[in-house]
Amino acid sequence: MVLVAQGTGSAEHDDRAEFDADEEAQLLQREELDFEDNDSAEAGFKRPRASGVLGRLKGPDPLDIQIISPFFTKAQEFLPAWLDRCFPERRQQVSLLGGVLILWLIAFIMSLSAQLPIADNSGRAVTNLDCVDTLWRPKNECGIGGIDCHPFSNTSFPFKCPAKCASVKVLNPRAVGPLDVNYRSLVVGNNPYRGDSFICASAIHAGVVGDNGGCGRVTLLGRHDNYTSRESHGIESIPFDSYFPMAFAVTSDPDTKCPSDPRNALLYLDVSVTALLSIFTAAPAIFFPIFIIIFAHVAFGSDPPSASYHNTTVLPDHISMFAKRLLPALFCAVIIYRTTVRRTLHGLTAHVEKTVLWLGGFFLGALSNYTFDWIPIQRLTAHDLEQQAGAKVALAAILVVLVAIIAGQIYYFWLEGRLLRYLALYGLFISGILVCLVIPGVSLRIHHYIIGLLLLPGTSLQTRPSLVYQGILLGLFVNGIARWDFDSVLQTTADLRGDGKFDSALPKLLEPIVSSTAQGLMTTFRWETPPTAVDGVSVLVNDVEKARRFYSDDADGAASFEWQRPVEEQLNEYFRFGYVREGRALDYTASGTLFGNGTWSGPERG
């Protein structure tokens, strides 16, 4: 294996650099390929080999070392050679690198000014929202009748939305009258919107902000009836033909000077700086500054983690989470570099190809919330694969592509004589996964960063496909950590459930008694004897918790629920019932409808 040293500006320096490079290459080759004498593979060294299957798995004799032969070699080596001629000493090159990184840091910090606190013309602080923020909180967090979510009306506030909110969906079913909404944006109505709608998605639907973020004003309107549906700006809102105690309208806010979202400027800056580092630098260790720059890009720009609820600035939260996650990520980066990246980039003179394939793949994986957003798999869990349309087909296609890639990588490892050791390594990985699958009480969860860590060793080859694969996997690792942190590979049922269903028992309703009174329509709901493990029954009316009945209060405390509808109320009303245990409401039944004419259509009894 011959590695070409860069020009250094003097004959003596050239000779010494070439000697050092050749000596390092020979040592690296002998160390990595288990050679035990001074003969090279190119000289036709015949290795002792086992007979049978193991002998065939050890690879050809002599070994076929896979080194990229650059296209337009002189052109790709011109810039690093020019840099070596202009700055021949190591301390000069280190100083130049430090200067570039300092300039990048200054420009990066200046671009983050958009995350500082802002106020409208009246001096009121603008509220920073997350894509899933609402005024009416889910899972009964507003209390009976919504007491904990007041005020319902006569107030307004300016807000600022981040980018990329149009594609955010609910990942567990949400009740909207007779519907159970899932895998779509939670926008109910058409300005005004129902109080539990995503504010930022509603603002996009209304045309107040775009998918690159922006500012607006929310005005609370109190009760509103008959929420209509409309498709606008890529979002189809959900209809609701009854009343809800809180509605809001979103409008543009000329009193607020809203800074533009920095992610486009950050992308141009970070791509330019990392491309310069990749093209001008031959040393594999350039991986570390590139890793930090892309990590910062995800953490502050392209896919920043959620910040504190309804705060006035997200920057302190983002700085805190960046510092918390970067340090352990750098520890992983050192291991990745020593075991994988250094082997791939060492001696590589195809600097333009490295930049396009490896660095391009790095950004492709790090920007996965854009580049892979079209794949209909939100989470790699059995629940999502069952519920989300197209998820199984997409997973099957991904597995087919992976099998083809793995087959190609196995062939190249066989050519280099390293197949047996990597088969042993992945045997350990698979054994660990199988052990995790049988541990009781927890479920295996394969996160972004786990996929990267598992597959990266299989890219430690100096081939063009490996450059692309390694870059994408590094990007997935960075995106997974910078956005979601080191989430556990083993998670409990409660962790995986989130705000999803408990799969609990449901109340079995009896036929309600509907009667007319002077005050309106009186409906009495009853249900069968409950399981002994529950404490009471919770009642939702139009997706708002209206009452809880507990069996311990008296003999008939939770045996029935009476609902009085005023004479003037002619809208449909939707009822759901769920058991309460230890102060927490469990799963609710499907919706039963009390129509405006006083007739009842109940959920299926189960």
Automatic annotation (TrEMBL):
Keywords in alphabetical order: Membrane, Transmembrane, Transmembrane helix
InterPro entries assigned: CRISP-LCCL_domain, LCCL, LCCL_sf
SUPFAM superfamilies tied to this protein: LCCL domain (SSF69848)
Transmembrane regions listed in the UniProt entry: 94-114, 266-299, 319-337, 357-377, 389-415, 422-447
Residue numbers spanned by region Disordered: 1-21
Pfam family, one: LCCL
Tagged with keyword Membrane: yes
Domain LCCL, residue spans: 187-238
This protein's record includes keyword Transmembrane helix: yes
PANTHER family: LCCL DOMAIN PROTEIN (AFU_ORTHOLOGUE AFUA_5G02970) (PTHR31331:SF8), LCCL DOMAIN PROTEIN (AFU_ORTHOLOGUE AFUA_5G08630) (PTHR31331)
Name of this chain's protein: LCCL domain-containing protein
